[in-house]
Amino acid sequence: MYIYPLGVFVLSDTIGRTRHGLVGYPITMYKPTCAFACRAAISSAQLNCSVVEGGSMEHMADMASMAEFSTPPECYATDDIFLQTLAWCVASRCVDLPVWRLEKYWSLNVAGIQPDQPRPKEPFEEALMKIPSPPTTVYNSSGMMLNSTQLVSDDDYNIQYSTLANFENGEITHERYGLVVLLSGFVLPIAISLLRFFPFPRSLRGHFNAYLNYPFIFGSSRFPTQLHGIISIPTRGRAFFIAFLVILNIIFSAISFTSVQPNTWYPDTSNEISTYVANRLGVLSFANIPLLILYSGRNNVLLWITGWSHSTFLLLHRWIAAICMLQAVLHSIIFLQIYVTSGGYNAESKFQYWYWGIIATLCMCFIFPLSIRTFRQHAYEVFLLIHISLSVLAIWGYETWIYTAIAVWGFDRVLRLLRITSNGVRTAHITIIDDDYLRIDIPGISAAGHAYLYFPTLTWRVWENHPFSVAGSNFASLDKHRQEEEHDSSEFPRSGSHSSTKEVSETPARPTTEQSASCLEHQFPSSKKVTSTTAFPDTSVHTTTFFLRTKSGTTPLIRQHTSLCVLVESSYGAGTYTPLSSCCTLVVLAGGIGITAALPLMRRFEGRVLLFWGVRGPRIVEQLEVGLHEMGVELHVSVGERVDVKTVLQAVEGDFAVFVSGPDGMADEARSVAAVLARQRDVVFLEEEFSW
Hints:
The protein is of the alpha/beta class.
């Protein structure tokens, strides 16, 4: 008779009573193995109290052929012959174990391993003392009546022992590899990020950036047309990390499997190894879930420690999710094949763990196509609702890994709530700039980086929120300065790729070196700058300003109001960029509303700043012009046409930093050019990625 274990989705279904932890950390399944092997060797015996159709076994003891029977836990706990046979086997096979361990096993496991089973009617030592003389009859494991105290044969015992020990060792290995995968995904980004503090030679750092860090793994676009936006192409550095995670999961899915034959559970080696592989895949799939939730969170602790961008972790989130889904699918397919082949499908499919496993696998399969970039861009709120709902169903099952995943998710949600609560309920003042852009001023808060804005009175979907880059604090005071200045609209070209700079003062605002002073002078005439200690004048009340581009979804509804109730979840992403103290020049490439992400960096940078800004129309430029010139930024605006990224960057002399915040095409071109230039000089490339 071969008994197939019930898999790994619900631990209590495999070993009976529910326990907390992982197998081996600290859960044990069949310890002491000698005692479990003794019981397993005689558990199929027919006892006097076994139940059959028409009565108990004692009425059928004289029959030549026995009917189908079952032995309830109460029978195991009270049958003298069973207790004495088990006690003798345990005493003779577990000679090295202290009595207290045997008594503990006896109390918990004689009647079975279910949570509500009865205790045996007498302790281990008492049952042992009741044996009148050492038994001499060897139990026949063919299922005959156990009507006297008997011996367990060496063959029966050894088969049971090796079966149980090998299975438990396999489960411990599954959990160990799951922990390695989880910890690798957490610790390795920290270890890699620490390398930035090592004083590597300048040439080595440049070659690292030029050949590994900046360029894509192939091509010059993150979304090649032939892939239709389904898969984004990572940079080589990201690709190496993704490859490490993929290879690690593949290796751990394929090693450290040991077959023991003959085996009381599996009829052959193929069936046995297939079960172990399916179990391993299930454990690894769930071990990856805390990682993919961590990577997707706004309050990901790795964001704070490593300085990596949120977009980087979202990319890793998608790859981990793909790995998790494939492992779950293979886990389900292998088990389905095993039970269909063995004829146990109909019985097994009625268990709770089975249909929850099917639900989890199907949910993961549905999540994958519903998360492609095209769908996220055109129906983000629908995507988010489906994504969260299916994810909740998918992770319901294997308790310890799920507790870890829920803890990660809960940590992120609690911090989100605290961020919102710290800012309180505010009023957003809305100004329409033109057909494309809005300006939102929120008095009473100070924020940096980017923030998530909730407009609970805008629609019935009060939970909806969207990220927006913070343009600045106390931005409202610019209106006063704008009124005091006379602006000729011709200074901002309406079409073409012309550049415009405005002379404000004779005093340079930023310290410059001889190299940076001459940088780009022949190509882009520098503007005169005004000395300013802050980017924008202070006011008595902090006011945080956002600029929004009108798209589908929420932003068209915002245009219909002059003020709205708003909840602000801030701040995120402030001060996470690479230090630029070694650079004398910062070149900023911005497209449209992407300028807002560049403003904090331009405020902090102490060298020369050149801003090349492509916009649809001049009105958004007029909103920011005064503040930009007060920061000492050399402003070059292209209205209606793209910035010539290659020409701009190739004209820069010496070492410099480039920050790009704009459409994918602009960012991809800037990345490719920066990678080439970094082969000859020190070029720091920074990108504000707009990723969902």
